[in-house]
Amino acid sequence: MNLNPLVAFLKKSPKEFTKADIIHYVEANDIKMIDFRYVAGDGRLKMLNFVITNRQYLEQILSSGERVDGSSLFPNFIHAGSSDLYVIPRFSTAFLDPFNEIPTLSIFCSFFNKDGEPMENSPEYILKKATQAFTRVTGMNYQTMGELEFYVIGSREDAFPIPNQRGYHEAGPFTKFEQFRRECMLYIAQAGGMIKYGHSEVGNFTLGDNIYEQNEIEFLVTDACDAADQLVIAKWIIRNMAYRYGLDVTFAPKITTAKAGSGMHIHTRITKDGVNQYVTDGALNDTARKAIAGYMTCAASLTAFGNMNPTSYFRLVPHQEAPTSICWGDRNRSVLVRVPLGWTGSNNMVAMANPKEIATKHDHSDKQTIEFRCPDGSADIYLLLAGLCVAARHGFEMENALEIAAKTYVDVNIHREENRQKMESLAQLPASCWESALELERNRAVFEQYGVFNKQIIDDTIRQLKSYNDQHIREEIANNPTKMAEMVDTYFYCG
């Protein structure tokens, strides 16, 4: 079973799609238009429209792509004097546009320079280089999945209210936007997104004439490059659905004080020959601990790709189920890196819940992931996943990785007063974009190793983060709700 119309029609997985398959689908389904889609330097999804006038033209654009103005798409890297780039479609990403009344096929593209080589500064290509370097160094594959948290905002309804900040897994009629979330999930799946589940989240409040309802859509683990594409598609679909429903949606990390912020937690998994390498005999192993050590070592600098505007640091404060200290633990939501509950205990739960089922033993080790909890919706998704991949690889290159993992492990809620001493012994995440930039500068050699991130992209990221001049942002907004509201409004549609 697969909800993607192309998979159902072609009877093959997206990884196997060819140019001939795309042409066959277009002709058989009377597709009128092709849209090329790609993420530019501002992190926004862009689009180029083609009307299919004949088979020859269709084959031409699928074979050679198209020429675009690189100086407008990447103004920090490409100048007007040498601005042309090629966008080349990746057939595995093709999906039927769920919104366009004109039958339209969308395809994600990669950027190539004038010499026909991949564009070094393209975020999508940086992620590809990161995964390739990881495999060369470790002999394993790096996989990820994301959790998209977002607020849906609509007109206030007084019937069946939810208590403030008690929206977690609530159902209708108490939750008002359940049908909206369901339709988003369906469209994402039809576009190739591998969804795990969706639900309402903790955040729920009314302000003036509006209700603010937090939701989450979580994905299944897959290769990091595919995971990034799916998150980009999902955000595009959610925003389009909101626009058509007459609702508003924000992925902003923090939109008001004393209410739940929205993160974009990233789960990771390392595999070899399809087998999860994080566990041995049901227990976390040294492979996992080495990756965790890499995350611990690079954590502060990873905020440069995962927390990219000042409002990110309104969310990363103590006692908000958002991490501030650089540490890890099992099932502990006060830590930066969490090892979530796995299926390593009883294998007979289904039989216990269903008396007619026979107890059987299953290997659920593929379910074990490691969660990195500080990123949010401001992130450049491709650069964030590339950075995490680099950090994990670095863990395998450090001689003292297991020592670092042991030193940064905690098994208590570090925000409780009785654990203050433990918290004070731990390194802290940056408190501003400015501090994040300094951490990236300090740790840039790790990201630049093997040519994954080049000097230009690191320099530009540092410049961008410093441009906010937010060194004292928390102090500035502490007793100034007007300033905070202005900043929230500025970055409301981030990412």
Describe this entry's structure for a reader.
This protein is of the alpha+beta class and 495 residues long. It has two domains: 5-119, Ubiquitin-like (UB roll), CATH 3.10.20.70; 127-345 and 366-490, Glutamine synthetase/guanido kinase, catalytic domain (Creatine Kinase, Chain A, domain 2, 2-Layer Sandwich), CATH 3.30.590. 37% of the residues lie in helices and 20% in strands. The protein has helices at residues 5-10, 19-28, 55-64, 70-73, 123-138, 178-190, 224-245, 286-306, 312-315, 349-353, 381-397, 401-407, 420-424, 433-448, 455-466, 473-478, 481-490; strands spanning 33-39, 45-51, 66-69, 84-89, 95-96, 104-112, 141-155, 195-207, 210-219, 222-223, 248-250, 266-272, 275-276, 279-280, 283-284, 328-330, 337-339, 370-372. Strands 7, 8, 9, 10, 11, 12, 13, 16, 17 and 18 form a ten-stranded mixed β-sheet that branches. Strands 1, 2, 3, 4, 5 and 6 form a six-stranded mixed β-sheet that branches. It has a two-stranded antiparallel ribbon with strand order 14-15. Helix 5 packs parallel to helix 11 (381-397), helix 7 (224-245) runs antiparallel to helix 11 (381-397) and helix 8 (286-306) packs across helix 12 (401-407). It is globular. The model has no long low-confidence stretch (mean pLDDT 93).
- Helical stretch count? 17
Structural class: alpha+beta
What is the CATH-assigned architecture of the largest domain?
A: 2-Layer Sandwich
Q: What is the C-level CATH assignment of the largest domain?
A: Alpha Beta
Characterize the overall form: globular
